[in-house]
From TrEMBL, chains A, B:
This is LacI family transcriptional regulator. The keyword Translocase does not apply. GO terms for molecular function: DNA-binding transcription factor activity; transcription cis-regulatory region binding. Pfam families: LacI, Peripla_BP_3. It comes from the Bacteria. SMART domains: HTH_LACI (SM00354). InterPro entries: HTH_LacI (IPR000843), LacI/GalR-like_sensor (IPR046335), Lambda_DNA-bd_dom_sf (IPR010982), Peripla_BP_I (IPR028082). Residues 3-57 form the HTH lacI-type domain. Keywords: DNA-binding, Transcription, Transcription regulation.
Length: 330, 330
DNA sequence: ATGAAAGCGCTAACAC
DNA sequence: GTGTTAGCGCTTTCAT
């Protein structure tokens, strides 16, 4: 069907070794033969089989990335940052979305067999699975999830900025803050809550927690229904933007006016947050992926000593959903 | 380093052929040997090398998908739909973002060497490259780009809904419509413009075209600067949502009130469009990717006869940016 | 039911 | 500078 190295060798009247050499380093064969090989190769429309090459070199020249989902801008942006660096390093990128499927562990293990290393994002598979892979010698980097012993990790700062957020809310006059989100769902949420509580403590205000079923607009909307109209907190700090947006929309339907009656904040700074005038926290998503890709490459190339754990800075973005003074008051 | 089929065979006291059989179809070896092989395999923590397997079977069990970018929800959602189906079919997914790089053609060719088939989205590589791949026997499906001779394609309906959009704008009282976007940039944009013109013609209103430098918020903002305050059209139909959002924001800064002074529409129905109350057109992005994945699989499995060209329906979503009657009038 | 052996398409010693 | 020859780890006839 498709031409192999042997076909080219025959046609050029040389050995397969010479073809191999000519293809991978033109400077180590004579100009004469180089020409003949190139001619033969282009005549036959020859492309070296990556499979043959990979098996012989015993490497895949490919890296994998595992994430829960790609809906919502969050992981998409991280994956993009990852792809940019990985492809620059000459490695193909394999993706795997787990979608919370129970078979995730097996899928990740299969994926690991197809690449030289793996980046694992967020709540996808258990630490046990990762430790198993690491034990088998699979180069690993985690991102946006709690560090695993001995495995490089990259994440975005949570507690500090959450603390600043609490301070900001207190400055705006809030005395009671409700945190919307389930700390059990992810370590990111946990850290955000912890930071918020620390900041609230310092400002002498209280924090209550309201868990949600899902971290999307629907989860926010459902939470809104559950709130007693007579007893609203001064502010609601949501675990992410989608919750906040769903919440605000549902509250508006009930006649609650943000920020006059109630302050609302999110987390992530997705595009829609700008148009909804939502106060939130911006994360360097692209960088998260890019840094993970570099860590992984360092590991694969054997350029690292101790496991690294990098925490990228985040930034509080104040908009009118939490800042009546400067905001609109529609 | 890691155990091979030979290690397992030795340990189980059988031949490598038997190990291979036991691994891929337990029912064709005796219960006795099956047990011994499984024991040995788990003792050695053996996982069959996908590379060895792939080379022997001469297939990759992987498909590729090529797209311009993943920022913005558009391609991310398509890729996700693709991944869902592909991974269900037991195939790994390789991604490649071209970012308008000149080396795109070569990158795609390399990618083609690593998988059993390819889906190519949008403005990434020229038709020439695709024809070359098709000639080499690479199974191909295009999506969100004009069909190439002999290659399956999937896309979203443009002209019909664009026509409906023109009718809607005319119904709202618009007499002059400006189309914001560069038809030269993609066939999608071209078709949207053509449909809009057809609809405008039928309604007896005029359409002008204003090309943009880029199809994002910045492009929209720049376009806003270029508009003469005194001579605004009645409506601006943008080639996508990001343009429309950037345009509206910039116009608001100049004191132009949407929709009172001017109607604005987008295309795509991204999340931010809802919060900006933007009239737009919704596309079945997830389906686009899923359908492409199925077409590709059919092709690879040899289940197709003639090339197929599927066009998925789209839907006009009217919000207050183009509908003063029912909308807000902030 | 199992084993021996010939590939799959390439790279990399090792000769010459 | 080039050819010969082993592999890389698996699947798959073909015997037995």
């Amino acid at each position: 069907m498709t031409a192999t190295i042997r076909d080219v060798a025959r046609r050029a009247g040389v050995s397969i070794a010479t073809v191999s050499r000519a293809m991978r380093d033109p400077s180590i064969v004579s100009a004469q033969t180089l020409h003949r090989v190139q001619e033969a190769a282009s005549d036959l429309d020859y492309t070296p089989s990556q499979l043959g090459r990979q098996l012989a070199e015993r490497r895949h020249a490919a890296n994998g990335i595992v994430f829960p989902d790609l809906s919502g801008p969050y992981y998409a942006e991280v994956v993009l940052g990852y792809e940019a660096v990985a492809s620059e390093l000459g490695r193909a990128v394999l993706i795997l979305a787990t979608h919370g499927r129970p078979a995730a562990a097996e899928m990740v293990t299969r994926l690991a067999g197809r690449c030289d290393g793996l980046v694992v994002l967020g709540p996808t598979v258990s630490d046990t699975v990762l430790l198993g892979l690491a034990a088998r010698g699979v180069p690993l980097v985690t991102a946006a999830r709690p560090p695993v012993a001995g495995v490089d990790s990259v994440s975005a700062e949570n507690a500090g900025t959450a603390r600043a957020l609490a301070t900001h809310l207190a400055d705006q006059g809030a005395r009671t803050v409700l945190f919307l989100g389930d700390p059990a769902l992810s370590s990111d949420v946990q850290e955000r809550l912890a930071g918020l509580e620390a900041g609230a403590d310092a400002a002498g205000i209280g924090v209550r927690v309201l868990p949600v079923s899902s971290m999307d607009e629907e989860g926010g909307a459902r939470a809104a229904e559950g709130l007693a109209s007579g007893d609203l907190p001064d502010a609601i700090a949501c675990a992410n933007d989608e919750l906040a947006l769903g919440l605000m929309t549902a509250l508006r339907t009930r006649g609650v006016v943000v920020p006059r009656d109630l302050l609302v904040t999110g987390w992530d700074d997705i595009m829609a947050a700008r148009y909804a005038e939502l106060t939130t926290v911006r994360q360097p998503l692209h960088d998260l992926g890019a840094t993970a890709a570099r860590f992984l490459d360092d590991f694969i190339a054997g350029r690292r000593s101790e496991p690294r754990h990098e925490v990228l800075p985040t930034e509080l973005i104040v908009r009118s959903s939490s800042s009546p003074a400067k905001g609109d008051n529609q």
